[in-house]
């Protein structure tokens, strides 16, 4: 629902909204990790900690949900023939939407792999201490938050395809540093590249899905499809890496998200609107003037 609301706001304003919105998720992850460490060090019971967080979350959600538009996601009631091609009028995926979904799947796996396995990779794969592994993950989450809060400027400057092409390539390079190099400074650089590089792919894919629907008539279904692709890989991909890591080592298992991020970089042109849509938009602007 939040992805759909942000996609609608982005379409209305023309300003990239989804990257900073997802930056709030990453910021929450970072603050949650810091809070958890603080509670553990001060002896706060887990039940009390989680209870307070749940209560605060409920209060914030209840106070802010009234600002969401009640019309977002509802089907259009327009009457008359729809000039869009048949594949753009369907709720089910067309070729472009499938490619956007694959990009979301790839970056979802890249993010989930770090969330589930990065501290353990540092401890078991690079002989770091447990504290160092936790600190590395906190640094990763912070870099991801920074990348998302700065993502609006990056998207405006490079376009969706350019932004995702370069950031996913950076994330793939970072994973390669962690998987293939034993030097701690190089691994640290890899973590920074991974965090910054993985930050934009998913929110930009959601944004592209939202405006891929002609007239917004089936935007909800298209955003939901891409979001599900990303979240499924976020949840199911890390166990797959664990299975591979059990047989070949976690560092070798990281080559799977690396390969998928390279694929996402190759597929990134699908994130930009087709030329026909861009030309139609330009003509409409000229007519309005």
Description of the structure:
This protein has 289 residues and is mostly helical. It has a single domain (7-73, 91-273), classed as MFS general substrate transporter like domains (Growth Hormone, Chain: A, Up-down Bundle), CATH 1.20.1250. It contains 13 helices and no strands. The longest helix has 32 residues, at 95-126. The radius of gyration is 20 Å and the shape is globular.
Q: Could you tell me the number of beta strands?
A: 0
CATH fold group: Growth Hormone, Chain: A
Helix content: over 70%
Supply the CATH class: Mainly Alpha
Radius of gyration: 20 Å
- Taken together, the total number of domains comes to 1
Largest sheet at a glance? none
Mean pLDDT: 81
Write down the overall geometry: globular
List the uncertain runs. 76-84, 277-289
What's this entry about, in short?
By secondary structure, the protein is mainly α.
Topology of this protein?
Elements: H1 2-13, H2 18-42, H3 46-64, H4 86-89, H5 95-126, H6 130-149, H7 151-180, H8 184-197, H9 201-210, H10 219-248, H11 250-253, H12 255-267, H13 275-288
Helix pairs in contact: 1-9, 2-6, 2-9, 5-6, 5-7, 5-9, 5-10, 5-12, 6-8, 7-8, 7-12, 9-10
